[in-house]
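hi got a favour to ask and not much time before my train. below you get a single protein, a line of residues and a line of whole numbers that encode the local backbone shape. could you go over both lines and see whether the tokens make sense for that sequence. a few lines back from you is plenty, here it is:
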Amino acid sequence: MPNTSGMQPIEYKVLVRPHDPTETDEVLKSAKNSGIVLPPTEQQEAAQVKGVLIAKGGIAFHDFGDIRPEIGDVVYYAKYSGLVITGDDGVEYRLMNDKDVAAIVIGQPEA
């Protein structure tokens, strides 16, 4: 997955593109497809803390064990972690510490 954000994290920071809850949550997807508009608070409540690792700093995941997230991996991260930043491409990203990445989703293609 190419980094079109215009940002490159440094040191232990990573850049994650959160999944759009209206695209990944089946209930929200069904509501959107049927013309139901849910308020942003409801969408946020249903949002999972899952996204795609877009970029990482030079020493991100340096002190992790054998399994380390790679660019393009789908990951779970801490719900309120990092900064929400809009990239040059107009997409909202999370810039966070590598330690905020909690798990790699195995067997799921990037979104």
User: Anything to note?
Assistant: The chain has one domain: 13-104. The domain at 13-104 is CATH 2.30.33.40 (10 Kd Chaperonin, Protein Cpn10; Chain O). The helical segments are 21-24, 26-33, 40-46.
